[in-house]
Amino acid sequence: MLTFSTGNKAVATAVKDAKTVVVAAYPITPQTEVVEETANNVASGALKARYIPVESEHSSMGACIGAAATGVRTFTATSSHGLVYMCEQIHMSAAARLPIVMANANRALGPGWNIGAEHTDSMSMRDSGWLQAYVSTVQEAYDTTLMAFRIAENENVLLPVMINLDGFLLTHITQPMDTIDDLGDYLPPTNTPHAIDINNPGGYGTLTPPTEHFKFRHDIQRGMKDSVAVIEDAQADFAKRFGRTYGMYEEYLCDDAEVVIVAAGTLAKESEVAADILRKEGIKAGVLRIRWLRPFPDLTAALKGKDVVVIDRDYSFGLGGILVNEIRTKALEAFIGKDGKANLPFSVIAGLGGQEVTYDDIADFVRNRKSGGELWFGVTE
Amino acid sequence: MYEIRLHSRGGQGGVTAAKLIAQAAFLDGKYATATPLYGAERRGAPVVSFIRIDDKPIRIYSQIRKPDLVIVLDTSIMQTVDVLAGLKADGKVLVNSQHPMELGSHKVYHTDLTGIALSLDLVLAGNPILNTPLLGAVAKAGIISRESAQKAISSVFADDRNTKAAVKAFEDMEP
Prior knowledge:
The complex is a heterodimer of chains A (about 375) and B (about 180). By secondary structure, chain A is an alpha/beta fold. Helix content of chain A is about 35%, strand content about 20%. Chain A is built from twelve helices and 15 strands. In chain A, the strands form three sheets. Chain A has a seven-stranded mixed sheet, sandwiched between helices. A six-stranded mixed sheet of chain A has the order 9-11-10-13-14-15, with helices on both faces. In chain A, helix 1 packs parallel to helix 2 (about 30-45), helix 3 runs parallel beside helix 5 (about 85-95) and helix 9 packs across helix 12. Chain A is globular and about 65 Å long. Chain B is of the alpha/beta class. Chain B has one domain (about 1-170): Pyruvate-ferredoxin Oxidoreductase, domain 3, CATH 3.40.920. Helix content of chain B is about 30%, strand content about 25%. Chain B is built from five helices and eight strands. In chain B, strand 7 (about 125) and strand 8 (about 125-130) form a beta hairpin. The interface of A and B includes residues 169 and 174 of A.
């Protein structure tokens, strides 16, 4: 059904349409509407779920771990300080191989107090074993939340999935959204092989010697590796059934591009407008939007032989922009020419704490690119 | 692309107004987005919302800098905020005011949204509701259709005084 929705409401609608069984969540700006809307849906009976109000985010993920351990479809949502407050449970939920789905409204961490969009909150969880998607439209937020359940619950994955929406920019914008009236069997019933079964008692989270621990960690990496095929299948089947196509990453005018802007979230959409402007000036620009951060896609072929400008709405202090460093690592060969000389990405740090970044600013980043350089937008040294 | 910047005060319903205008444009068959600009929200503080309307999907998330239309729900804001900032040379202004206003060479619509809301006892927590009558005025200015304005209102508000207020604003405002 064609409707009009905020990014937050899109997530809540997908949680309802996925017939989620347990929701445990704590409201936090700018994610609050996800929790309100979901609580409304449970109260009205539109979603026949058990809604568990909790006293903190650490508890919300704790309740989700308990629920998912019984093998039922489980959801929560958070943002920023809420996400880092549940950090211990984030790692536990992945290590326990529980297919929990969580929406995170990307927001800066304080102090100084700032509630604007920033990706450092979720990206600081990138080593936990959670899959991570970054969405850029209200429609994509709805679609990806639905896919997330199928991907997380797949027996070859069994890892939690985080869907990231830029705080305010996407959580609060209202856009057209087409909801799916009948999902058919797109989301099969959950079938968690290690679900708690009172007729078959077992131990969970017991003391584990190094050999087994090592094996368990390798299993997570295998699940992460296998998740690529599961994501691709979930996206292809989604396109076949519902007509909307998604990839591990999205390309805009990249084929003949001499320079490619790489970004995640709403900045990547805004970059498409910048690419249009640059093309009118004769600069063949394209945009590669990172949709899945974990598992991180192989971008070598996509970026080979091109100038690359990476916009990070995040930072790893003492290293650099998180995206640009992931890209340098995973697509290193793309940046080494036949002559052995390197043409490294230009790193732009922009939009932290909801800093206003326009398509004109992005076009400037491209015009002023310097191989291997780093620019903090708006900061004068 | 048609871009509208809406100035209001926290509690006046500006954010909902932006959503309703965008929703009406969407019902007219256009692509539309509505974005509130949040700062430290508090009742009475100046608030800005943005509405974009286009024939194709909208990829811009940054603020509107060169609006085609500026809407002012509370003219006292004009003492502290330059509501005309960036307004296109042929851009228009719509003010909630009993009296006509002159603002440079810009076409200025005026309508007494507060009076309309009070005449229908359309009041919430002591504040007259301005967003639903505003839709009638925006329809009169030709930005959205009258039918879609009514549909957008009734999809959100069950109380038919809201659509009545929109009809009254539509009829009252000079084109």
